[in-house]
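INFO batch 0412 | record 1 of 1 | parsing
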Amino acid sequence: MPQKAQSGNLSLVGVFLAEILGYLSLLHSPYRLGLSIGDYYFMTNNSYTVTTTVPPKVDIQPADMRALLDRQRASFLADGIPTYDARIDRLDRLITMLVDNKDEITATLTADFGTRSVATSLFAEVWHVVESLKYYKLHLREWMQPEIHEALLPDSEARVEFQPKGVVGVLSAWNVPWTLAFIPVGSIFAAGNRCMLKPSELTPKTSALMARLVAQLFDKSELVVIQGGQTTGAAFTSLPFDHLIYTGSTRVGIAIMRAASENLTPLTLELGGKSPVLIGRSADLADAVRRVMTAKIFNAGQGCLLPDYVMVPKGFEDEFVVHATMAIKTMFGALKDNPDYTSIINDRHFGRLRSWIEEARQKAYRYQQNRTGHNAFGGRFAVRLDHG
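INFO prediction complete | emitting tokens
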């Protein structure tokens, strides 16, 4: 049966989103999208119907991927370095794709996650990406200019000319799929390159939508979306790109670097890390905890920049938990069946989180659990661990 995406709660949007990364300050910049909090209300009250059936398997043969790479490289060499106007045109088409299809984008994200806050999707996957693309447009002419430096020899100068590499591959992650796909694609276009994009197989409906929308606005010689699972991803990393970009885990990053080394492909790896929070004795604990939980709850904690753990002075633990519980209640009220709270992406990740609670129980740690739901898309909980 079709599933209708639910609208977000405006009372949470202004406080919740503004506290996360401070991006809303960009609303007053000269390249702003033109959205205000009131506009978010208008946008989040739209709904879109998508089917919940999983898209058919779309693994592509390595030879077909290589043919697409060869097509892009031949087109790049034939056309030469793209002009300023050509780069702006590609960036504008990306912006058009995101803005014109924002409702379907948010609804499809909800279908992939099971529950995904519409306000979060609009903010993180549409507004944030569009603002980044507009930033590229604002500075593009400046970036294309050569740098002039002093030269060692008299009566001479040294110049650094910025030239595109050719065809760039992008392997993007699932947690904020449009952001982690199209902010890199935008920078690739701004630099004058072509792009092959392989989004994560963990959000298959979103990947299918990306492929369809990109095909409507771009020729395959400019940008193409490759769908498929791990086999396709492994073959993708083995292609002789002029540059390869990956966002994801360190474990997969090692495998990608190994595969890329066969072609001496230059890499940009943005790998998972830890984001600890330290709270001192002189801190306003209630305010600090509110800020920590505002960031941690964003996308149900599924983000590499979100706090992983908190270190507080001995004796502050119980007070921290009280303030953390109050912060969640203030932001969301109840979490169960709340469309403003995002689900864990799949069974495997949900099971990994549940295993931490079991580990705490077995090791006689103290923990506090708030769990509602047991399936892959409904399981949500907060857990506190310390040595008791």
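INFO post-check: The chain is about 50% helix and 10% strand.
INFO record closed
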